[in-house]
Amino acid sequence: MSHVIGRVIVGVHGTPGSLQALRFAVGHARMFGAALVPVIAWQLPSGHRVPVGLADEWAAEADQRLLTAFDEGLGGLPADVPARPLVVRGAVGRVLVAIAERENDILVLGQRRGGVLRRAFQDSPTRYCVRHARCSVILVPPSELTVELQRGIRRQRYSRSLG
Q1: Which long-range contacts (CB under 8 A, 24 or more apart) does 98-104 make?
Q2: Are 98 and 84 in contact (CB under 8 A)?
Q3: Residue 148 burial by Cβ neighbours in a 10 Å radius (0-12, 13-18, 19+)
Q4: In which order are the strands placed within the sheet that holds 106-110?
């Protein structure tokens, strides 16, 4: 295990941006000989009474999403990198900051592209982590393919709204 970098913690939720972050984190862990800690955080809707068994179902679904992310992003768990996947109940930003508690940890997150208004008025787990993490945070931009697909979807929606 690396003495320079303790662990590479990566937030995963299955979107193309988080898969990009996962691939980056695995490469970083491999390069520095660090442990990989992929994390998926989940929470029940607030303010609603939830049947007792539903929390267990949501936890199992989150666990499956984490495994699916590895399959889709890397073809499975990497054999050459020590990985300790975690499924944690709680708010995403708070969970990631709590896990990435050591100064020599690195927290890797996918960075969403958004307009100026979205970034100004919408708080996100990424922004929370950047403001509160005690370790270094690396924001991985979306792939060019993802950006182009999002542009195409926006253009399509705009053209539909016009006519």
Answers
A1: 99/9, 99/37, 99/39, 100/7, 100/9, 100/129, 100/133, 100/134, 100/135, 101/134, 101/135, 102/6, 102/7, 102/134, 102/135, 103/134, 103/135, 104/3, 104/4, 104/5, 104/6, 104/135
A2: no
A3: exposed
A4: 86-89, 35-42, 7-11, 106-110, 136-140
For residue 5, the SS3 value is coil
Looking from the CA of 71 toward its CB, the CA atoms found within 13 Å total 6
110 neighbors 15 (Cβ within 8 angstroms): yes
- Cα separation of 95 and 100, whole Å? 9
Measure the CA angle with vertex 157, ends 154 and 158; round to 5°.
85
Q: Which amino acid is at 100?
A: A
* Cβ atoms of residues 15 and 66 within 8 Å: no
* pLDDT tens per residue, range 111-146: 866 555 455 545 588 899 999 999 999 999 877 766
pTM of the model: 0.80
